[in-house]
Write a structure and sequence with these properties.
DIOX_N; Jelly Rolls; 347 residues; vitamin c; alpha+beta; metal ion binding; single chain
Length: 347
């Protein structure tokens, strides 16, 4: 259990308070060094109205907007999603209150050395790994019989209830979006949902990014794309940090306080035969302000075969990806090595 003790005793939150120079393992080297710039251009990110998307009289225009967003940027902000601003603020608040607990209280939920579930930071898989400047609480939401309740905080008191309500709403939205994405490609409406399966994996990751003394060399999250089908991000209301890579250039994501930021993951890129892009993104740090976000990952059932939809394969557009099962299992090993897992399934 030594790895667990080492990680938790060196929580990023404690290092930020300590004020000393962070250890070398947090510093980006080589090509990454010296280019961690927070002042990159802002994305003119598409905004999709979920109410218009689900209304027969208005959905054609929103489907077009959705299609354009995920085939160019791979991400969009969604508004009119049926969740009150006050409820989203409550979700943010329980996250902030958890990370504000004493270290002793947070350590009750510490992850085990060989698992990502629970409170902690990066799993150390190699001596050469660059560590992210973030502390996380990582929880399995669904299937419900896979939940490890011992990692679900009892303090704040309303943490469990709030997370449960929030993620139930997101799972409904995920179904709507998977149907809409298929329709935007002129496919059978349930085409992607059928691959997604009856017992999908839904996980939540609460992210806490303390102020960082070296934002020029240290990232909150290293560049990566997601292993999910769809990822939902509740951004911090005030502090930017998320950046997307497009055409070898980084772009900042603007904050729309009561919108949800959605990006497609590698598994939708595979299902869409590369038409929809799973974007590479990273999180930059800053010296002054902490940042709190919540990412929820909707991941196809592990024993389902994920493959490009038949309707998207033709003589002019051949099949670009192999069939794959349990994509997540290969993902984390590649991610910590700084490689793109999707490269392994390209034909």
């Amino acid at each position: 259990m030594a790895a667990k003790a080492e990680l938790i005793s060196n929580s990023v939150q404690e290092m930020a308070v300590d004020g000393k120079e962070p250890p070398a393992k947090y510093f980006h080297k080589g090509n990454d060094a010296g280019v961690l710039d927070a002042s990159v251009p802002l994305i003119d990110i598409p905004v999709v109205d979920l109410g218009l998307l689900t209304s027969p009289s208005t959905n054609a225009r929103e489907l077009e907007k959705l299609h354009l967003a995920v085939s160019s940027w791979g991400c969009f902000q969604v508004v009119n999603h049926g969740m009150a601003s006050s409820f989203l603020d409550k979700v943010r608040e329980v996250s902030k209150r958890f990370f504000a607990l004493s270290m002793e209280d947070k350590q009750k939920y510490s992850r085990e050395a060989d698992s990502i579930e629970g409170y902690g930071n990066d799993m150390i898989l190699s001596d050469h790994q660059t560590i992210d400047w973030t502390d996380r609480l990582y929880l399995t939401i669904s299937p419900e019989d896979q939940r490890k309740i011992k990692f679900w905080p009892e303090n704040p008191k309303d943490f469990r209830e709030t997370l449960n309500e929030y993620t139930m709403k997101l799972q409904e939205m995920n179904e709507i979006l998977l149907r809409a994405m298929a329709m935007s490609l002129s496919l059978e409406e349930s085409c992607f949902l059928d691959q997604y399966g009856e017992r999908p994996l839904v996980t939540a990751r609460f992210n806490f990014y303390p102020p960082c003394p070296r934002p020029d060399r240290i990232l909150g999250v290293k560049p990566h794309a997601d292993a999910s089908a769809i990822t939902f991000l509740l951004q911090d209301k005030e502090v930017e940090g998320l950046q997307f890579l497009k055409d070898s250039e980084w772009f900042r994501v603007p904050i729309i306080p009561h919108a949800l930021l959605i990006n497609v993951g590698d598994q939708v890129e595979i299902m869409s035969n590369g038409i929809f892009k799973s974007p590479v993104h990273r999180v930059v740090t800053n010296t002054e302000k902490e940042r709190n976000t919540l990412a929820v990952f909707c991941i196809p059932e592990s024993n389902r075969e994920i493959k490009p939809a038949d309707g998207l394969i033709s003589e002019t557009r051949p099949c670009l990806y192999k069939k794959v099962k349990d994509y997540v299992s290969i993902y984390f090993q590649h991610y910590q090595q700084g490689k793109r897992p999707i490269e392994a399934v390209k034909i």
